[in-house]
Each structure stands twice: as C-alpha cells, then as structure tokens.
Write a structure and sequence with these properties.
CATH architecture: Up-down Bundle
Number of strands: 2
Number of helices: 19
Strand content: under 5%
Structural class: mainly alpha
Length: 449
Amino acid sequence: MEIRNKANRIRLFTLKTPQMRAFHFSWFAFHICFFGWFGIAPLMAVVRDDLGLTKTQIGNTIIASVAITVVVRLAIGVLCDRIGPRRAYTWLLCLGALPVMSMALVESFEAFLLARLAIGAIGASFVITQYHTSIMFAPNVVGTANATSAGWGNLGGGTTQILMPLIFSGILMLGVNEALGWRLAMVVPGIVLFLCGIGYYFFTQDAPDGNFETLRARGELPAARGEHGMGQSFATAARDIRVWALFVVYAASFGVELTINNIAAIYFFDNFDLTLATAGLIAGLFGLMNVFARTLGGIFSDLFARNSGLKGRVRWLFIAMLCEGIALMFFSQMHVLTLAIAIMLVFSLFVQMAEGATFGVVPFINKKALGAVAGIVGAGGNAGAVAAGFLFRSESLSYQQGLFYLGVAVILAALCALVVRFSPEVEAEESAAYRNAAGDDASGALSLR
C-alpha cells in the first residue's frame, strides 16, 4: 500500500493538517485507553480487601487483563487495512467503554475476572495508533512519530496510577464508602472513552489525502480485501521470521511495561509500607517517563538510520533491550526506597526506548501487510505480559524474585533483535527514501512550529 503526501516534519503545535490531527488524536485515544485498561490497578489494595482476593486470584486478573488483547491485536491490524484506522478506533473506543463501566456491577472474583478480561480488548488501541502514524509520516520521521504517539499514549499508564486514587478519594469525600467508591471511579474512564471514540470519527481521516473508502473510489488505493485477502495478508506477515523476532522483542519490552503497570502500586504498598496514594504516585513515575523516553527510542532509531540505514535501526534496538534487562535485574535487588525509585526510573527509560526502537523497525518489514505486521508485533507485548503474569501469581515466588527472572528473560530476548535483517535492495531503497524525505533537514527532530 503506497500512501502519498506523508508529512516529513512533526509540527507539534498545530491541528490544521490531517497528519497532525491523526497524530494527536491517536496518542490521546491510546492514553485514555489506559484509564480503562489499568484504572483498577492502583486501587487493587482496596479491591483485594473488598472482594477478599488471594495473591493467586490477583495474578489471574492481571493475566486476564492482557490475555484477550493478544487476540484482538492480531485481528485489529488486518481490520485497519480493510476499513481504515479512523473507523477501527471509533468502534474499539465506543464498544470498549461498555465493559469499563460494567465494573460498577462487580460483586465477586468471577465477575471481576470477566470484566478485566473484556476490558483488555481496548489494549488493541496501540496497534491502531501505530498504524495511523505509520501511514501519515515519511521515513525520515516515522520512527519518531510512532515512538512519540505510542509513548504519550503509554503515559496513560503513569497518569492512571496517579489520578485514579485521586478520583477515588474525591468520590469518598462525597460520603460514599470504599466498596462503592472504587466501582464508581471506574465509570469515569468509561464515559471519557466513549466520548473520545465519537471525536475520533469526526475529527480524523485515514490517510493524508482522505479516508480509505474515498481513496478506493478514486482508484488511488487498492480495493478492500475480502476475508480471503485479509487472511492472505496475515499469512504473509506470519511467514516472515523477522516478524516473530520482533514479536519476542516487544514481548520483552512492552510486555514488561504492562506487567509493571499492574503490580507497581501494590509492590511499593506492600514492600515499603506506604499509603495507597504514595504507592500510586511512585508507581506513576514509571509510566510518566513516557513523556520523553519512548520518543527518544524513536529519535535514536531515526538517527541510527541516517548513518547506518536499517541496520542501524536494528543495532539500536539490540542495545536498548540489553540495557533494559540489566536495569531490571538491578531494580529487583533494591530494598531501600530511594534506590528502588532511582533504578526504576533508569529501567523505565530503557524499556520505553526499546519499545520506540521496535516500532522504528516495524514499518519497513512489509509495507503491503503493514497492519498484519503491526498487529502481530503488537500482540507480542501482551503475550509477554501474559507470560510474565505467571511469575507473579505464585504464592511461593516473591515479586523480587519474579522481577529478577524477568530481567534475565529480557536479556535473552534481546538476541532476537539480531535476527532482523534486510536485503541489500531494501536497504538501498529505504536509504534513498530517507534522503528524499529528509531533504535538506535530515534531523528527524520534532518541530515546535
């Protein structure tokens, strides 16, 4: 799929162009999705007491919250190829709001588990965000655009940890008890998700020159594939070993971030004897690094590409993954609060840069099956979170031990980055496209104009 008139600059402070409207709406939508997806995580200490949950049951809900996302992410990328990211995002946000608000009706572990399972579907929003920015921005800035939109979306993991306890506290000030308070708190992100879905439909478009249906009517885009074509697109991506290498890499980066989002607040609450609000604030620092960390991953990916082409992008991905694993192992051994916070921030920096570096590579794997590639790699993040969830559901394994083993797994996963190779022809083609898009300004930096 060849999309024309992609933007070669990221002009942050404008909404006049369709490229920048897609950029800002996509990161904001993904950001809001975190409030529905992980809004309950910073309130888990209250939920645990209210529903009488065991550590194993909490672990099962953590797994449920990310398990269904694997399946939905695999499908949503192919769906974007078919109906376009605008309609795909609208449907996901509006339908995803329903199980978020249904959390107010939960009265048992089983109902809570099912609600978290259903809510996990909105995690597929990440794939649409990356798809939309990938077709809106040129090769010289696509790594930065993907990393920034995803990073500011992932920032929702941090703001959720901070704001949800405040929303909960505000509801309690109205005279509501804790058992009802956490349920009502989850209604708030559900309403916002629905409104965001409506806004996405009316204020964005699929591509720089219009929506997919318009482009197809003008003959500027191939006709939408039927079920057979969609399956073929997925099969093409699935046969590429590089896609599965990136699947593993993303499992060990975004999958780890999702895991930390789920356990950070209760980890600090239990291990350092903090209040719920303080534990949520510290846990929120991990996600707040997304303000710049994932963007840095994309910027470095574009800079490495400037000097070394696609090989440079892959080399940078390996470096970021290796540093992530080492930092995580150190974090697991911290028993002093200040040191734990400091090492957590270093770890957060590298895990998010690794995520940005991953999707600095994804747009170049197979442009004709971009949605399928993005979907499979994106699903890797949730598959990694599911696998990591089993480390934290065992009564016999401490959180510190689980984090250490997770760090070892990340280092091993980093080796998969080296599997990603490109033919000399593709290297030459993409280097030429980079130079053409960059023109006189090959910096790929964000523009403030």
